[in-house]
TrEMBL record:
<keyword id="KW-0819">tRNA processing</keyword>
<dbReference type="GO" id="GO:0002949">
    <property type="term" value="P:tRNA threonylcarbamoyladenosine modification"/>
</dbReference>
<dbReference type="InterPro" id="IPR043129">
    <property type="entry name" value="ATPase_NBD"/>
</dbReference>
<feature type="binding site">
    <location>
        <position position="120"/>
    </location>
    <ligand>
        <name>Fe cation</name>
    </ligand>
</feature>
<feature type="binding site">
    <location>
        <position position="283"/>
    </location>
    <ligand>
        <name>substrate</name>
    </ligand>
</feature>
<feature type="binding site">
    <location>
        <begin position="138"/>
        <end position="142"/>
    </location>
    <ligand>
        <name>substrate</name>
    </ligand>
</feature>
<dbReference type="GO" id="GO:0061711">
    <property type="term" value="F:tRNA N(6)-L-threonylcarbamoyladenine synthase activity"/>
</dbReference>
<feature type="binding site">
    <location>
        <position position="188"/>
    </location>
    <ligand>
        <name>substrate</name>
    </ligand>
</feature>
<feature type="binding site">
    <location>
        <position position="184"/>
    </location>
    <ligand>
        <name>substrate</name>
    </ligand>
</feature>
<dbReference type="GO" id="GO:0005506">
    <property type="term" value="F:iron ion binding"/>
</dbReference>
<dbReference type="InterPro" id="IPR017861">
    <property type="entry name" value="KAE1/TsaD"/>
</dbReference>
<dbReference type="InterPro" id="IPR000905">
    <property type="entry name" value="Gcp-like_dom"/>
</dbReference>
<keyword id="KW-0808">Transferase</keyword>
<dbReference type="Pfam" id="PF00814">
    <property type="entry name" value="TsaD"/>
</dbReference>
<feature type="binding site">
    <location>
        <position position="311"/>
    </location>
    <ligand>
        <name>Fe cation</name>
    </ligand>
</feature>
<protein>
    <recommendedName>
        <fullName>tRNA N6-adenosine threonylcarbamoyltransferase</fullName>
        <ecNumber>2.3.1.234</ecNumber>
    </recommendedName>
</protein>
<feature type="binding site">
    <location>
        <position position="116"/>
    </location>
    <ligand>
        <name>Fe cation</name>
    </ligand>
</feature>
Length: 354
């Protein structure tokens, strides 16, 4: 099966061609074409929905054409189109779905509507044929979730953020310290020369039984500290970034330790696997902490390559392949959903019918 994937839920305009391989658990990525709109949004310190939607309209046709060319295939070689139907910014989702439906109508191809989070969740199966079940930590600009991936369409959300996403917290903290967008890489860079113990910032949710996250109080604490010190020296910024990153890492450690113990108690006492995905997974301090926790808990840590961790269409094409192979295509009447919790993914796909 060869599937064209389309992803336009946030600020990446992306298309990809992925093929399932006979006798192998994973898939083969023939092309993975991503246009990142970071430069279009940088001046505003975050993603502007209107600008994103317009950029998707202007760019998607060319990205699809380039992705087919990169894969050295034509639409004649494509068996189905998989497209992100949600969650995300509605303008971009509409652009992606209209394009996918147009291709499917013109070429009489099946359409598979994919939940963006499911794309992230199934990525280790594309790259490594990872068997179910496993735990997923998804940390990006829009999401912060701990998910139990039991099987295809069988996802349990164990924890989520009650306010800001982790990437969003990095971006907002960077902005208030006068650092460029995207904030994650900037904060990490600044933190390298900072003293993480200089400011005793809060560790929101640490010690809580439930596996949720909260980051807006932490960001506010950085803001208060910064305004007390103003005007900030370069060293102040280094130290604030280091203290912020330490607080985040410390909280994450507590959450993940609990999640892994719960996994062992409830799901399986087999050596568990923890998959980390999302743009924030690039952070070296967070990565080192996860390696440490997993070592202690005898868990295998797996992080897909960064190009497949941040938003891309290869993961959407792959999720499409998995659904097609179990017989679930989507009707052409399916509508984009800006909110679409992953736990509902299976139900709403079936609800949309064929
Ligand atoms: P979605 O939430 O839908 O996946 P997104 O585009 O916001 O969409 P990604 O592209 O996966 O998410 O990730 C972008 C986020 O990752 C930004 O918030 C960015 O600041 C953060 N990020 C990137 N690199 C780092 C880093 N080294 N440390 C911390 N955060 C980082
Ligand atoms: Mg992005
Ligand atoms: Fe994403």
């Amino acid at each position: 099966t060869t599937v064209l994937g389309i992803e336009t839920s946030c600020d990446e305009t992306a298309a990809a061609v992925v093929r399932s391989v006979e006798g192998s658990a994973g898939g083969e990525i023939l092309s993975n074409t991503v246009y990142s709109q970071i430069a279009d949004h940088a001046a505003f310190g975050g993603v502007v929905p209107e600008i994103a939607a317009r950029a998707h309209v202007e760019g998607l046709d060319a990205i699809v054409a380039r992705s087919l060319a990169d894969a050295d295939v034509t639409l004649d070689d494509i068996d189905a189109v998989a497209v992100t139907a949600g969650p995300g910014l509605i303008g971009g989702l509409i652009v992606g779905m209209m394009t996918a439906k147009a291709i499917c109508t013109a070429r009489s191809l099946p359409l598979v509507a994919i939940n963006h989070l499911e794309g992230h969740a199934l990525t280790p199966r594309l790259t490594d044929g990872m068997p179910f079940p496993y735990l997923l930590l998804l940390v990006s600009g829009g999401h912060t979730q701990i998910l139990l991936v039991r099987g295809l369409g069988d996802y349990e959300r164990w924890g989520t953020t009650i306010d800001d996403a982790l990437g969003e917290a990095f971006d907002k903290t960077a902005k208030l310290l006068g650092l460029p967008y995207p904030g994650g890489p900037a904060v990490e860079r600044e933190a390298r020369n900072g003293d993480a113990t200089r400011f005793p910032l809060p560790r929101p949710m640490k010690g809580e039984e439930r596996l949720d996250f909260s980051f807006s109080g932490l960001k506010s604490a950085v803001r208060r500290q910064a305004s007390e010190l103003a005007p900030l020296t370069a060293q102040d910024v280094h130290d604030l970034c280091a203290s912020f990153q330490a607080a985040v890492t410390d909280t994450l450690r507590d959450r993940m330790l609990r999640a892994l113990r719960r996994y062992r108690g409830e799901v399986s006492d087999h050596p568990a696997a923890l998959v980390v995905a999302g743009g924030v997974a690039a952070n070296q301090a967070i990565r080192a902490m996860l390696e440490d926790v997993c070592k202690d808990e005898k868990t295998r840590l797996y992080a897909p390559p960064q190009s497949l961790c941040s938003d891309n269409a290869a993961m959407i094409a792959w999720a499409g392949i998995e659904h097609l192979e179990t017989g679930t295509a989507t009707g052409m009447d399916v509508a984009p959903r800006s909110r679409w919790p992953l736990d509902e993914a299976a139900a709403s796909l079936i609800g949309a019918g064929r």
